[in-house]
Hints:
Elements: E1 2-8, H1 11-23, E2 29-34, H2 40-56, E3 61-65, H3 71-79, E4 86-89, H4 93-104, H5 109-123, H6 127-142
Helix pairs in contact: 1-4, 2-3, 4-5
Domain PTS EIIA type-4: 1-131
Organism: Pectinatus haikarae
Pfam family, one: EIIA-man
Amino acid sequence: MKIVVISHGDFAKGIINSVQMLAGRQKNLKAYGLYPEEDREVLEKKIEQELITSREANEEVLILSDIFHGSPFNAAIKLMKNYDFYHVTGINIPLLVLAILERSRGTGAADICDKMLVEFFNTVQDARRLLTEESDDTEDEIL
Length: 143
């Protein structure tokens, strides 16, 4: 399975670099950004080339975009008319790590998408609230 991360600017490249620090170098993991001097069609062509290559290899593709309804998201949505792939938006480091680990276990793209949607709610936390709750739990144990 190929994973393609798409974003505004260098976010896709940065998140892949960060994830590879945690999970090691990865094959079939691509990053493409949309830059101010480019229009959306430039990004669409890059994504489409990955889709064509994967279709020829009979390989699943999971596209991960940065922002719901952003230009990279819309580029992928437009390509869904002609290509069969999976697409999750709102990507972050924990979700990309999850996708990579699940892929290495042989999990298919559809199941990875399902797992990402469930796990998403655990990837964003209010640290102040967590510390307060932890402090309350500790006090209960002491008393």
